[in-house]
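Hi all, long-time lurker, first post. I run a small reading group and we've been trying to get comfortable going from sequence to structure in the token notation. Rather than ask abstract questions, I figured I'd post a concrete chain and ask someone more experienced to write out its structure so we can walk through it together at our next meeting. Sequence below, copied exactly:
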Amino acid sequence: MRQWRKWLGLLIGTVALGEAALYLGWHDAPWLLQAQLALVWLMLAGMVLWLDGHTPAHKRRVVRLMLWPSLALQGLSVLWPDAAFFLSGGAAGWLMAATLIVRKRQRVEYQRAIRALRAGDYARAVELMSALIAAEPNVAEHYNFRATIQRMGGRAQQAVADYQRAAQLEPNSAQSNVGLAETYLQMGRYDEARQHAERALQLAPKDWGAHFLLGQIAHRQNQWGEAVEALERALNLRISQPTSRLLARLWLALDTWQLGKEEEAAHHLEALRKERDGLALWERIFAAEQGSVLRGMLGDDVKLARRLAEADDPLAELRRASLSAKLTQ
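-- Answer (accepted) --
Happy to help. Here is the structure in token form:
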């Protein structure tokens, strides 16, 4: 996403400079409007080509259905500038209509599977996705979604198989490797979790999630220095989920304390105490039946985060928690 924004900003900036140069240099020229429309078309064409090249193969047909007719209509305005207003309106109208059509054609199976999940019927959710996979066996998204259902239902080994198949179908996608890392972490197989987290990081180096995963794995393995580095990188990339920010601050406080960095630990404790939204969200997640697996993995961490957030002397509470952890190792 960051690469897209950077590229888009450069493209728009270049076109804006070109438009300004045309107006300042040839504002009385009869072909000015046509040249300006051509520049706009080139910008749109560049955007469409970039999206086409960076869209997964199974979604490319839908993207083309939405974008190419609009681009063609906009291109006609360069040939007939007097009809530019009408043609541009038609291009925008097609894009809006195509978006509505695509939304209406969203997979009913996904919607049904989500409803089954909310009802706690994991078997039915898996069955629905399995039927879809049988009909479309080469779509990685289907396997990733079924793997998520398997994980939520406590079937980690089946989730691994689905994530692996998704990774085979889309080897350059970080999503499947993140899923594998999370599943192996759930199974306590830290070396394999690390391998896939590192692969996800190679594929998406600006994604805070991969850094967060590496920090979590290192924390579980008592590799405090490595955990601190990874979690700080995740925070610098702006962790968007309050639940993950809460845990990142918790593990940073614990690990910097273990490294003898009391001032840094106090800083992270202070930041943790401000993550009230994260605590509230975790409580809602754990209260739902679908949160049982996460509750088993992270319940103790969230309980400790609450104790630290509510303690009159959080450093003293952190000291007791660290001592207790050493005694149980």
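A couple of things your group might point at:
The chain has 17 helices and no strands.
The CA atoms of residues 66 and 98 lie 5 Å apart.
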